[in-house]
Amino acid sequence: MQTTELPGAGAGAGAGAGGAGEALSFDLTRRPWIPVLHSNGSQDELSLRQVFDQAGDLRRVVGDLATQEFALIRLLLAIAHDALDGPADVEEWAKLWEDPDCFAPVQAYLEEHCERFDLLHPRTPFLQSAGLRTGKDEVFSLNRIVADVPAGEPFFTARIPDVERLSFAEAARWLVHVHAYDTSGIKTGMVGDERVRGGKVYPLGTGWAGGLGGVFVEGATLRQTLLLNLVAADTEALDFSVGDRPAWRREPCGPGSGGRAASGLRDLYTWQSRRVRLHHDADGVHGVVLGYGDPLAWRNMHRCEPMTAWRRSPVQEKKLGRSPVYLPLEHDPARSAWRGIAALLADRLEESGGAGGPSRLRPRILDWVARVVTEGHLPRRFLIRARVAGVRYGTQQSVIDEVVDDRLVMPVVLLHQQDPAYARQAIAAAEDAERAVRALGDLAADLARATGAEQDGPKAAARAEGFDALDHPYRGWLSDLATVDDPFEHRATWQRLVRQTVGRLGDRLIAGAGDAAWQGRIHTGDKGGTYWLNAGLADVWFRGRLARALGNPDAPNSTGTGGSTAVPDDDGLPRPGPADPLPETDHAATDPEEHA
To answer: 421-575 belongs to which CATH class?
Structure first.
């Protein structure tokens, strides 16, 4: 690990500590604090200067959690946007892409603003409010900012029961994270905050990124990752402001809120949703004061925030009496990224979505990459990773229940705006899997009904097994799209693989059904009539459902959803019918503003 000694940093005084009688300092531009993975597989901690200097030789940033990595990437992007003051347009971006030393101006920029990057500065500590205090001068446990220890119930056991001390490097990472993902709930009021009532400030929502279904694009190196997410200022789908600037180029925040709106990407990537003050000594950070900062409403921020998909909210449209109203499309922890690929790829602008606009908007960061591809600045067979990160909050957003972390390797041809066939087949292939796995779950439920047993458990277990069996094959199939000339034939190959995989799982369910399932029992349909359900009939129904889900991949012009095989209708009686539509279940149903 490489370190840079600063004046006054004496031996034995702790990282960044000053000598006797001198103020402590931890300059994030020079001190190692960002965990990274080198291209050779080794891990390290680097300063901001080192990260930008070595970006071409680094694989990626490695956070303590996926959400911390997301927050750190946004911080690096804010620095890059501000240091380069752009890019102004796609041509300027292309020059940066071709220049291996494109981040050279960042070094002078960090030198100019190094005082505002000092974690321990007495007047302007990095992303903190100097002098922040409660009415009783309380100093709280570091559990309040370390997200793997929410509410005393840690995700990881290494820090049980409390976080008593953090190194300055760790504290800096969690400081960036708490502004992005802090929980909601009642918080202790800060002296000077006009929102305090009875010593408390009542819930104002999570940190800004906590309401997003976070998405960014990964390249082969950190340099590529930063450039792929460095959106040009002439992007029509996003609003840019001449006055946009990050937190360290603004006046330090006081204890209250200025009530202002975000001015652009640089501001939003470093948004101060909390007021924080770290308490420390020469050996590290041992306590924190944490309160509410500047809240932001998630409604209709799709022209400002590029790193999430968006969905229309009928509840908000009815409440506000206007349309459309878009809210971030959050990730569902129960669904892998490939199962929600439609939210990443589908161009919802071609849908009417009813009066007022489309029903969904894909992440603008992917629109930006699509533009770069369409205008020929990236080869069609270039591979990227769509990285998704987010959280699921619980108990009125006062605790973190789950962290979402997934990535999906895909060729940029899927984002080509003038050649949507590849993207449509990728989405259709994921829908093939959904329908086939639904048929597998229905088989498990029918076998349970044949014995008079409970159905929900076997059905859920069969569906989980089906998606697990198709997860790795779909990811490989998607990556291989970069090498094929006919996406339709490639989808037919996928349908055959799904038919074989899910068919084998169905065979195993039937073989293990037992004598009671083969004997069966009489059932009465919801609309009257009786029928004898046993494993044999369940097998027939399953084959019919699977045929409807996938069609015949070897037949000309097969749609994958045709056929009129007899399958049970809503009353349980077999009859022909069209394929069932897929439900809208590729996102979390939680609407942070609809529960306000």
So the answer is: mainly alpha
